[in-house]
Amino acid sequence: MAKRLTVEVAVVGGGPAGLTAAIALAQAGVETALVAPRPTADPRTTALLAGSVTALQTLGVWPGCVAQAAPLRVLRIIDATARLVRAPEACFEASEIGLDAFGHNIENGHLVAALNARARELSSLVRIEHAARAVDIGETLVTVALKGGGTVAARLAIGADGRRSLCRAAAGIETDGHRYPQTALTFNLRHSRPHEDTSTEFHTESGPFTLVPLPGQRSSLVCVIEPADAEEISALDDAALDAEIELRSHSILGKVMVEPGRGAFPLAVETARHFGDNRIALIGEAAHLVPPIGAQGLNLGLRDAATICELVVAARHRGGDVGASELLVRYDSLRRADVRSRTLAVDLLNRTLLTDFLPVQTARGFGLYLIDRIGPLRRAVMREGVTPAMSQPRLMRGEML
Ligand SMILES: Cc1cc2nc3c(=O)[nH]c(=O)nc-3n(C[C@H](O)[C@H](O)[C@H](O)COP(=O)(O)OP(=O)(O)OC[C@H]3O[C@@H](n4cnc5c(N)ncnc54)[C@H](O)[C@@H]3O)c2cc1C
Q1: Average pLDDT in the 349-374 region?
Q2: pLDDT per residue over 78-87, tens digit each?
Q3: Ligand 1 residue neighbourhood (C-beta within 6 Å)
Q4: C-alpha 93 to ligand 1 mean position (Å)
Q5: Could you tell me if 400 and 27 are in contact, meaning their C-beta atoms sit under 8 angstroms apart?
């Protein structure tokens, strides 16, 4: 590789958000460098909502995912708390809003492999398999120094380098957030009964316990519990873990066998004060960390990627500077409300589960009852969950950049 490479946009970080941004730009003919070391194993799965699936279709990535993804046709919420006031069971079907599925669930390993395969097909994309060591912001260019030696200079750097983002620190962007007294354990399971394309979320006093279909008789599980319980469960041997998960899932999937690969993620929320500044735009977890409740994190991250790429392509057509501060201010304003509203909704749901305060329990139960029983409200909530009215970048609508 040349010691000093100059491109229009440098994307730092090759997780799903960064890869998506790099593909979207390169597909639109923007000279792009992707600064990303080889991916490490990620035990998570992602429920990609319909808009994200459409974007991946538009980018030519979905054919590489489809065989590994399971459709989510029914969402079921069950109040499994032992409290005085319990919400009634709520069940939502994608067909009620004219969709075949709310989205698809896929293992992150398969998603990243499909993104990488598509990225390799694009000639305007230069791949640099080294981590960024430092990011230096100049008046007209931002320069990324690589761990393997050499630099990449660009008009704009897209920071897709995760929750401890080097790009965010280099741009001097602070974050706000807090931790929750909870840990999310992740497992993939085989089970003896079919899931019938249904995702089931049990609400418990320590957080949601969510089973999401994978292809065949397999599901992924995100179990949000207190850190001490998480340690205990993580230490169980395979047979004891199988029994524990079958018990907690009320045997709805029959006999359960946990597959190798256990994950544990302390819960936190963190949002950058600006999503773009100083020739750096932040996307994905570099911009916002959301608890894994309600499948929001990467769906937001993909909308970030689609939005910044749309702005860059439009600026380029006008002959403008793709790293200009007006473009970054516009990016921030386009993403802020979507991120804020989803973060607040997740936070609120989580807090209402954790609290013992009876009026709050009652309000949660009543809210779910209303959503379940009132047809137009129910459909509006479903539509908003899948395709947020306030953020529909072109890729999510199936339009090329
Ligand atoms: C348990 C759990 C379940 C979840 N389920 C869902 C779900 O169902 N639906 C959903 O939408 N979201 C879900 N999420 C959220 C989702 O997993 C994240 O939003 C997503 O993985 C973040 O992707 P990213 O590309 O922003 O960051 P990451 O995946 O963290 O990628 C960042 C990349 O940057 C690289 N990097 C870091 N530093 C540098 C550097 N200096 N130079 C170059 N590269 C660097 C890293 O190696 C990494 O590859 C879940 C999260 C958890 C914890």
Answers
A1: 65
A2: 888 766 566 6
A3: 12-18, 35-37, 39, 44, 46-47, 131-132, 160-162, 166, 184, 186, 222, 265, 284-285, 292, 295-299, 301
A4: 29
A5: yes
